[in-house]
């Protein structure tokens, strides 16, 4: 490969990496915030799915109604759907103190079922897949070589990396709410004794997390694709679960993990289109395998939040 | 008269009623979705619950649909009772299906009485093998099994996909599906000209075995003790690690059998939609069946009925077929909540 071709290849790869990583950043930061409060939300796969559906459905219907900001309404619809599912998760695991992993899987199944039901309800059974004009990409550096194509990204991608990641870090480590959130996840009894409202804090963490997961899903439907299909999330929620553990519950490391996976994903896609006959599934299995391996190596020192999976009941 | 709610175990006769109450409550809340489609909830539930049983063909179809669910439900039950949270039935099913296909493809010219037991054994071992790493990590390294079993589901699906896009890709159609297994490896039909196959019998046998082990053997007693609290069980001299390891592995094996029945009884080749979530539905079945072997059988039949009914109701009333999925998921969450009632009892007391 000569130099200019290689540079083009590399630039395309970097641009695609950021794009692929975006929904994972939203999802895994949502999951970090939730798990730091002591709740494993396995509803993430379903909430991302519902976010993708709700975002798309609201956007498409608003567009039909002739509303200009239809994509923003879609984004709002996605956030509302994610918050509702998070509240349901809160009712089950915080208020009733039910088993977190079964509740979470139930939320995933429910959210996927509701989305597919809703899709049929709203769009019927037409043979043409409905679509909307999605968010357009921003050319921050215009047509400049190298920087131009790399920084040709969606607004939601910039928000994810430049706003969400620092904000999540600041929230968790530099605010009193973040301290309360972590204390509730680490030792709810002590937090309660210190006057922290454990239930309210856990609900808030779930709601923030649920909204972010839904935005991650909506990024795919109303920014990247402009359409919704049953295969739209395809396990990205589970990738986020893996990334969060791999990142040992830290938002910055989770973002790094998302970028790493984004790069691997984008690379295998490019190698495939270039005609390399690779079992691309090996690349896709990496985040899961690496996480399991990392768990096996760190073992007992895996730094789980202290109250992970434990419901809190006031005696 | 005074009504008092006390925090003490509910009376024994009340416990089996909890899933029934959950079913009624779920139907009441999901009626709102039926109303959204401008259909009558009562007629929708007629098509869900009664109509499929009114014809021989669809009643048999209920048994066909419930076959893999009986197995995954039994698998999940076997793990959960032992306090091992196996969320990986989906992946274990896929590996069982893969092994069944691999063996079935080689069975040309081999008589059925060898081919079928070989596939069943292979599927069980493959499911068990897929459950091995998380179970060992749980026992040896105290690493929570929920996430490891869950993540391995995605890996299993990728393995199936790699096989179907690689060595097993159909050479003629180029579709991502494996060639057909040998005729002698196909499960015989229980009723001619229907889809009901040997797998149903296999599933019922597994239920009987699970019931026997859990309630009639010392090992089952140890499992339940571990499930109730591993430190107390350890104090009572039970080898907690060994008990948990075995319940996790057997659970994986049973889930693998569900993959065998789908390949050998229904599809005759491997496709990546071979499961379609039966492993996760197994968690619904186990919960609705209150982690009891016979409860699992009934719950799987009920979910099979809902699956069949969802198609009927969609044809008859135009209610999207996915209502069945919503009902099942809601049923899981509602049952989980209603099971809290096990810990309470209501007392009526006459005053004076």
What do these coordinates show?
The complex is a heterodimer of chains A (315) and B (352). By secondary structure, chain A is mostly helical. Chain A has one domain: ABC transporter involved in vitamin B12 uptake, BtuC (Orthogonal Bundle), CATH 1.10.3470. Chain A contains twelve helices and two strands; from the N terminus they run ααααβαβααααααα. A two-stranded antiparallel sheet of chain A has the order 1-2. In chain A, α1 runs antiparallel to α11 and α3 runs antiparallel to α4. The mean pLDDT of chain A is 92. By secondary structure, chain B is mainly alpha-helical. Chain B has one domain: ABC transporter involved in vitamin B12 uptake, BtuC, CATH 1.10.3470. Helix content of chain B is 69%, strand content 3%. Chains A and B meet through α4, α10 and α12 of A and α5, α6, α11 and α13 of B.
Q: What is the helix/strand order of chain B?
A: EHHHHHHHHHHHHHE
Put simply, the count of helices of chain B is 13
What would you say the CATH architecture of chain A is? Answer: Orthogonal Bundle
Assembly category: heterodimer
Summarize the structure.
The complex is a heterodimer of chains A (315) and B (352). Chain A is mostly helical and 315 residues long. Chain A has helices spanning 3-36, 44-64, 70-95, 100-123, 147-150, 155-174, 176-186, 188-193, 198-225, 236-246, 251-273, 281-298; strands spanning 137-139, 152-154.
List the helices and strands and how they pair.
The complex is a heterodimer of chains A (315) and B (352).
Chain A: H1 3-36, H2 44-64, H3 70-95, H4 100-123, E1 137-139, H5 147-150, E2 152-154, H6 155-174, H7 176-186, H8 188-193, H9 198-225, H10 236-246, H11 251-273, H12 281-298
Chain B: E1 2-6, H1 17-36, H2 41-54, H3 56-81, H4 89-105, H5 112-141, H6 145-165, H7 198-216, H8 218-228, H9 230-235, H10 240-267, H11 278-288, H12 293-317, H13 323-338, E2 345-349
Antiparallel strand pairs in B: 1-2
